[in-house]
Amino acid sequence: MNKKFGIKEVVATGIGTALFVALTEVQIPLGFIPNTALQPRAALLAFLAAIFGPVVGGLVGLLGHALGDALFYGSVWWSWVFPDAVFGILVGLFAAKYAIKDGGFDKKAILLFNAVQVIGNAIAWIVVAPVLDIIIYAEPANKVFAQGFWAFLGNIIIIAILGTLLGAGYSKIGAKSSSLSKED
Amino acid sequence: MSRVLSYEEKDTWIHRLSGVTKLVFFLLWSITSMLSYDTRVLVVMLICSLLIFRMSRTEWRQVGTVFKFIMLFLVINLLAIYVFSPDQGAKIYGSSTPLFGDTGRYALTKEQLFYECNVMIKYLTVIPAVFMFIVTTNPSEFAASLNKVGIHYNIGYSLAIALRYIPDVQDEYKKIKHAQEARGIEMSSKASLKDRIKSTSAILFPLIFSSMDRIDIISNAMELRGYGKHKERTWYSERALQRNDYIVLIVTILFSVVALVITFHDGSRFYNPF
Amino acid sequence: MRQVEPIITFKDFTFKYRAQVEPTLYDINLSIYPGEKILIVGPSGSGKSTLAHCINGLVPFSYKGDISGSYEIKGQNPQKLGIFGLSKIVGTVLQDTDGQFIGLTVAEDIAFVLENDKVPQPEMKQRVQDVAELMDVDTLLKCAPRELSGGQKQRVSMAGVMIDDVDILLFDEPLANLDPATGKKTIALIDKIQKERPVTILIIEHRLEDALYKDVDRIIVMSEGRIVADTTPDELLSGNVLEEHGIREPLYLSALKQAGCHILPETKPQHIESMDLSPYKDKVFDWFRSVSLKKKEISEESALEIKDLDFSYVSGKPILQDIHFTIKKGEMVSIVGKNGAGKSTLSNLICGFMQPDRGSMLLQGQDISTLSIKERGEKIGFVMQNPNQMISKPMIFDEVALGLRVRGVSEDEVKERVYETLKICGLYPFRNWPVSALSFGQKKRVTIASILVMNPDILILDEPTAGQDYKHYTEIVEFLKQINGQFGITILMITHDMHLMLEYTDRAIVLADGKIIADDIPAKVLTNEEIAQKAYLKKTSLYDLAVNCGIEAVSDFVECFIQYDREKRKERN
């Protein structure tokens, strides 16, 4: 578990947050339900947390979401900021196990990564976000749970696809390639 | 991207306040407006918000597009509340007074209307505060401020790096997107969901992986220039608290306390006129 | 001999990165004395960057590995000093000015070292002001990095390391990202710094001719991890070490050698302006008389016609104005000009990434203004400068196939066309490799292949040779020349590289402040002082050679030499 917060982690948090903010506007509309979209930045967050651990994951979620909301939407929905931080921490807790950097992101690690992301998303979006919405804004429970559930569903889909691919792709970059030979 | 809010240098008393002061104001203001459902408090806050916004000499062109977007979002949210829970107001205020006769589940009640108005005002009180905070706070000074209020400089510096590189990352995103579009990657909504995810990954992969290289380069550059040598550091853009800062801080804290006392004195966060 | 102690010494020094099998540096023996100015040259992979990392402490503190032998910096053991201790002695200016520029504004970036050293704010402000004045960036203190040019960013980086009164200034490829005129200014500035302050200067650079614009005391040549020469510039330039180790010698020397001259150290070959050419003049004259210029046949058919193009982001502030030119089929043309002159904007307009305010574009006589980016992409291929920003698939085959697959081409045809393209690009043996196993140059080829596979009529390349050493430069441009010649693909290159422009392009379109100020053969452009100055280009040293030898037909001379030199190089490959 990487709990150390050295220069590399500071920079990873900074650049990760910049990426997260820049991707705020990049959304993949689902099409069939208006005003819903998959958020590629969720996959980015899962990827960064899986590489750099819970501290970077949590901070990128917190700073990235708050800053993105503030810069693009002029208001900060804290009830949706914290779930991202919680999610970043949860995925990051198992960073060492995925072994993405060492090229060890094999089937078992991918399964673990996805199990963690589904559980993490459930905690973040079906528990934390709606509860905060109810506490802070006194919004109707059925509305916020429905919203939370959609966010949960959208995030697990995009992370299962994009997040896994990002992890696998980056894992390959780090892997040794001594077994390669030229073919005629 | 022109839609993004950004700092503009101007000379008003609000601009001259320290980032710490504005951060504290922003946080307390948000918390108060989040917790309070007392209409009287919210209306006073809304008026104050607008006054402060006015004094910061923020122009419409700086915030216009973002504001329109928030309004759209707000309307959708208010409608969603109504669709999901037309009796939320009745539940909260303990009475139900239909406005246009009883027409079943979706009959609009005075209580529901009043509740939704409160939700709207809650949002509106915060928006000018956020606008003001972003367009009047020098980002460099803000990073230094965080350190000042006791947060470790590593966090402040992470934020500084984020603010420094957001424009670079946006440019890079645009460049990569263009080059991939020329290769035939389409981002239009005509494509199937699967194709759209694929297209997005064709842009995100190069963007994210080249950013990973950048992390290495920047950490080396920082290390070579002595970052992290001591437990503390000083800041070029740090500003010491002035008389005005203390005044604003005291007023803000008093206001929040009074607002929350008024809100909660009868044991409920809701102001009930019914 | 010298009285003073050396400031840097390496004794039988060998270094191996932890992840590698073979050492990167072998038996380095080197002494550098205080106040010296040393140029370190060598092809990519020669170990010159690793040597620099040993001096500034990134090795072994950031990049781990095994060290044998001994080294000292300012009389101390670097491994005991640590990276922070070393940073007080050695100031490093990195190649990537955007990576080094960490602050949100110029002033903060310059102050970075002082902030980390807990210097109180009033003192910090004074020192920032002083060093900013020295580096001539004091009017920019409040600017954000994106408001600055590459040259200005570099001056800020220099100010940021000099603020700490370091003993050694280490420049890692300072010229790589600059236009030629700005590069020249950088070298002059480094020279000025050394005259005003008692510092030792190390410059790592493979652009030897540009780096030698001002005097250096010694040049160290590295090759395959070893020091293969450590001598004065005049001695080095008279020998054959450079050629043997794949480092490009200054053009005027290649020309003299082409003319059959044997370079003598006493003629001071370090600068063409002051070199004694009297022993060589006659030979140069004879050679020029003996050769004749072959004209390349250019087709009359136009490939791309740009008519009266205007573009601006904000009305009243034109980025491009009255752009008008025609590119013939099969031509290889360079678009040159200083940073911000509108070169990238022009290519963005041609590819359809942006829309012009006025004017039209014809591709083989057909108006393309209504075509989408994707449709244009089938005819006009665009290759980005950094291949890492283009490659999105882990496997080479898939990357090259991407453009065909999204267009719904059948998998059989995809396979056939990808294999064919990979063969042309010399990548066929690697077809089943992951992209990550390739070198930078090979990745560049993959990106070119991924465009070529769509059979475009025109290829636009953004800085195709940036950051490449001589060997890779030759490889890439010869490859482009080959696809240009064999398949008649018209090639348009946006570049700062004067060698590329001079040696490989038929024509140069010169932009300055959003207007075309010249559209002519490169030899003429680079021998015209006025154009060179306006567009931040650098006059070629062949111009001075010709003038100083008394040759009047300067641009013909330049063209002749380029033609012969290219042929010679082709034979060698």
Provide a quick synopsis of the model.
Chain B is mainly alpha-helical and 274 residues long.
Notes on the structure:
Helices cover 72% and strands 2% of the residues of chain A. Chain A is mainly alpha-helical. Chain A has one domain: Arp2/3 complex 21 kDa subunit ARPC3. In chain A, strands 1-2 form a two-stranded antiparallel sheet. In chain A, strand 1 and strand 2 form a beta hairpin. In chain A, helix 6 packs antiparallel against helix 7 (141-174). The longest helix of chain A has 34 residues, at 141-174. Chain B is mainly α and 274 residues long. Chain B is built from ten helices and no strands. In chain B, helix 4 runs antiparallel to helix 6. Chain C has 24 helices and 19 strands. The longest helix of chain C has 19 residues, at 554-572. Helix content of chain C is 40%, strand content 21%. In chain C, strand 16, helix 19 (470-487) and strand 17 (490-494) form a beta-alpha-beta unit. Chain C has a six-stranded mixed beta sheet, with helices on both faces. In chain C, strands 15-16-17-12-18-19 form a six-stranded mixed beta sheet, with helices on both faces. In chain C, helix 6 packs across helix 7 and helix 23 crosses helix 24 (554-572). Chain C is α/β, with parallel strands linked by helices and 573 residues long. At the B-C interface, helix 7, helix 8 and helix 9 of B face helix 3, helix 4, helix 5, helix 6 and helix 15 of C.
Which secondary structure elements does this structure contain, and how are they paired or packed?
The complex is a heterotrimer of chains A (184), B (274) and C (573).
Chain A: H1 7-22, E1 28-29, E2 37-38, H2 40-52, H3 54-73, H4 78-92, H5 95-98, H6 107-137, H7 141-174
Antiparallel strand pairs in A: 1-2
Helix pairs in contact in A: 1-2, 1-3, 2-3, 2-4, 2-7, 3-4, 4-6, 6-7
Chain B: H1 13-16, H2 19-35, H3 39-55, H4 60-84, H5 88-93, H6 110-136, H7 139-148, H8 153-182, H9 193-224, H10 243-264
Helix pairs in contact in B: 2-6, 2-10, 3-6, 4-6, 7-8, 8-9
Chain C: E1 8-17, E2 25-32, E3 37-41, H1 48-56, H2 58-61, E4 65-73, H3 78-87, E5 90-93, H4 97-100, H5 106-116, H6 121-134, H7 150-162, E6 168-172, H8 180-196, E7 200-204, H9 208-211, E8 218-223, E9 226-231, H10 233-238, H11 241-244, H12 251-258, H13 281-290, E10 302-312, E11 318-328, E12 332-336, H14 343-351, E13 358-363, E14 366-367, H15 373-377, E15 380-383, H16 396-405, H17 411-424, H18 440-452, E16 458-462, H19 470-487, E17 490-494, H20 498-504, E18 507-512, E19 515-520, H21 522-525, H22 529-534, H23 541-548, H24 554-572
Parallel strand pairs in C: 3-7, 3-8, 5-6, 6-7, 12-17, 12-18, 15-16, 16-17
Antiparallel strand pairs in C: 1-2, 1-4, 8-9, 10-11, 10-13, 13-14, 18-19
Helix pairs in contact in C: 5-6, 5-7, 6-7, 16-17, 16-18, 17-18, 23-24
